[in-house]
Design a protein that fits this description.
Number of domains of chain B: 1
CATH topology of chain B: hypothetical protein PF0899 fold
Largest sheet of chain A: 7 strands, parallel
Order of helices and strands of chain B: HEHEEEEE
Oligomer: heterodimer
CATH class of chain B: Alpha Beta
Radius of gyration of chain B: 18 Å
Number of strands of chain A: 8
Number of helices of chain A: 8
CATH architecture of chain A: 3-Layer(aba) Sandwich
Structural class of chain A: alpha/beta
Strand content of chain A: 15-25%
Shape of chain A: globular
Structural class of chain B: alpha+beta
CATH class of chain A: Alpha Beta
Radius of gyration of chain A: 17 Å
Helix content of chain A: 25-40%
Bound molecules: guanosine-5'-triphosphate, magnesium ion, zinc ion
CATH topology of chain A: Rossmann fold
Helix content of chain B: 25-40%
Strand content of chain B: 25-35%
Distance between the termini of chain A: 49 Å
Number of domains of chain A: 1
CATH superfamily of chain A: P-loop containing nucleotide triphosphate hydrolases
Largest sheet of chain B: 3 strands, mixed
Distance between the termini of chain B: 31 Å
Shape of chain B: elongated
Amino acid sequence: MKVSVIKNVLDANDRLAADNKALFDDKKVYVINLMSSPGAGKTTLVERTIVALQDQYKIGVIEGDIQDTCDADRVARLGIPVVQINTGGACHIDGNMVREALPTFDLAALDLLIVENVGNLVCPAEFKIGENEKVMILSTPEGSDKPAKYPLMFREAAVMIINKMDLMPYVDFNLEKAKKDALTINPKLKIFEVSCKTSGGLTGWIEWLSAQITTYKKS
Amino acid sequence: MHEFSLIRSMLDIVEDYAAKHGFEHVNAIRLSFGRLSCIEPKSLEFGFKIQSEGTKAEGATLEFDIHPVVVYCLDCEKEFHADHWCDACPTCKGENVMLNGGMEELKIVSLDVI
Ligand SMILES: Nc1nc2c(ncn2[C@@H]2O[C@H](COP(=O)(O)OP(=O)(O)OP(=O)(O)O)[C@@H](O)[C@H]2O)c(=O)[nH]1
Ligand SMILES: [Mg+2]
Ligand SMILES: [Zn+2]
Ligand SMILES: [Zn+2]
């Protein structure tokens, strides 16, 4: 006998993520899901973003490291509430993990929640967590072939931050090709070229994020 | 690596449907996904064999409907299909193209049950 199903395999996760989103909307917390390969600069971007915006907004952070708490410690040093999710070796954060982390925060007092996903370009793009936007980082040493190899990540993201621009003279990164391929996959993608080391180009990102939060709060 | 979570979710869906439709065993699961969605049939089959042990889907075959890569050329105003990533139009060789398909997420289409 044939039973017709026609269901996304990740349907249960999608529903959990929608519940999280409803909770965030109720408390007006703007949530970004930050994704990249290992070492592309997620935690450094989180630190820079906190320093730029912490006088303006109340910020919270969820860190999804596979093992240690280094990244969470870096954020905690800035005086920001941070929860380390133990992914137990999982290669991504899912909706349920985020839900279990939420009781640690006073959501009503937060304006912005940044979730640093596990370093991986495949499955973090598949698992929704209840975010407003997915933001991804591509760093110049990784090479410009990444959009072509991992298109789903570039399709799902609203923003691509090209990081480590300070290393351009030393790496073989075809900036135009990376941008063109990313836009072929996702014509609406917003692209910022930055160096989290020198802070070059970060203003554009900070202004974009700030405008997003303001618009969301008014909605 | 994402196969582990995907298979666990597949098995949960099978249990749900078994409860609803009252079947005892699954012979085959028909799946669909896009060519560019980083899903590897061989890895899925391998993981499924192990993770499905002791469930109603133990030993079930997996069947795959793989959606092609669909690219639209803005100059030719035509769509074409490919079996891998493609950033130029095969007709005019231009690069004024948009990716329109091939990233569809993993779905269960149907179950063959007894
Ligand atoms: N040269 C240069 N180095 C950078 C830049 N941004 C980050 N780094 C360095 O890159 C390394 C990794 O940065 P992290 O911010 O820890 O990267 P991550 O993505 O959080 O790494 P995981 O959490 O382990 O996946 C660190 O040594 C940073 O100092 C940059 O713009 N330029
Ligand atoms: Mg980090
Ligand atoms: Zn994963
Ligand atoms: Zn053409």
